[in-house]
Amino acid sequence: MIVSKGSMESLCIRVLKKAGENTRLRLTELGVIDKNLKIKPVGEELLIPVVRHIEGFGDVIKDDFEELIKELSILDILGYSPAFEQVGDIAIIDRHEKDAGRIADILVRQKNIKTVVQAETSVGGEFRTRGLSVLAGEKRTETVYRENGCRYLLDIAEVYFTPRLSTERMRIRDQVKDGDKVVDMFAGVGPFSILIAKKFPGARVIAIDKNRAAIRYLKKNVELNKVRNVEIREGDAMEEIRGISGADHVIMNLPHLGLEFLEGALGIIKKGGVIHFYAITHEDDLFDGILYKIEDIARRLNMQIIPLNKRVVRPYAPYQHNICIDFRVI
Asked: How many domains does the chain have?
């Protein structure tokens, strides 16, 4: 947040309003705008405060400007950056933060945060949820999260969701083509499925999840994003993939248990199709160990795979990483 502090005289560039934004951008690139002062409209003109005289931008004059001061950041107040993530308008403080109450009081004053919660447990259980307690703001855990041009309604206490996979979801989407059949075996509230379906209306996306709450939100998010090419299936992935064949892409974002479902995924992928397999691995053996297990399962089914991409998605825990291997089945 920025508030007014007072006024002071400064050099400035006088330009017509219609040329104001272009001039501001050029002056910003040159590093000459005085960011402590507020740009001033005068009739059909703008006065842009600058820190020094500069040629080629019109009249350079002097005028009085409002002085601005930035509100203290969390880092300024605490002296360190606390561990938290934001989903929609809800901030989630790490369960290990000892000064959570004070952090919550600071966070809830941010204009884009309405609720602050603290995790009471780590992510766990069949549906990868966690215990949460509301520390400040509105007493709720439901929010709308915006990402990559999509909106997702979700309850962070009932479903698993992380904004830290935003880039990863885009990466997978960009490997799909219009007309492809995509099976999202552990779809959650739909961040992979809906993103793909929205870009490729000719694709057929099958989204599966066992968590009834996730399915409820997935249905709402399909409507919210106005996509019509997502087929939703509720139940265990190994049961719900029965009858599916010829998939171009299978997304397996269940990093702790993916190997248990790999045989099923290999059974529905077409020859030449790609499986996007997620896992949690130790930093001493990021890819080789898990890749050997994938190849062994494929070999038992008289199938072969060709690794296409091996990538660290994000740190997960000390010495552990969330990784993804994209591989083609031949």
From this structure: 3
Check which CATH number belongs to the domain holding 187 and give it. 3.40.50.150
* Dihedral in degrees, nearest 10, Cα atoms 32, 33, 34, 36: -140
Q: What is the DSSP string of 68-80?
A: EEEPPPHHHHHSS
Angle at 141 between CA 138 and CA 145, to 5 degrees: 105
Contact residues for 267 (Cβ-Cβ < 8 A; gap 6+): 241, 301
Structure-block tokens of residue 18: 């219609």
Same domain, 199 and 325: yes
Instruction: Count CB atoms within 10 A of the CB of residue 122.
Output: 11
DSSP string, 37-90: B--EEETTEEEEEBSS--SSSSEEEEEEEEEEEEPPPHHHHHSS---EEEETTE
pTM: 0.78
Closest CA to 22 of 46, 44, 2: 46
Domain presence at residue 45: yes
User: How many angstroms from the chain centroid is the CA of residue 226?
Assistant: 20
pLDDT tens, 309-329? 999 999 999 999 999 999 999
133 burial via Cβ count (<10 Å: 0-12, 13-18, 19+): middle
Q: How far apart are CA 265 and CA 224, in angstroms?
A: 29
Residues 286 and 169 in one domain: yes
SS3 category, 162: coil
Which residues does 26 contact at the CB level (< 8 Å), separation at least 6? Answer: 57
Residue 5 confidence (pLDDT): 60
Q: Does residue 209 share a domain with residue 83?
A: no
Instruction: Please give the sequence-ordered ranges of beta strands (E in DSSP) within the chain, or none if there are none.
Output: 2-16, 40-42, 45-49, 59-70, 84-87, 90-93, 115-119, 132-137, 142-147, 150-155, 181-184, 204-209, 230-234, 247-252, 269-282, 305-317, 320-329
- Residue span of the structural domain in which 33 resides: 2-70
Please identify every stretch of the chain with a pLDDT value under 50, giving residue numbers as ranges.
1-3
**125 in the same domain as 249:** no
C-beta separation of 71 from 1 below 8 A: yes
Could you tell me if residue 16 is inside a domain?
yes
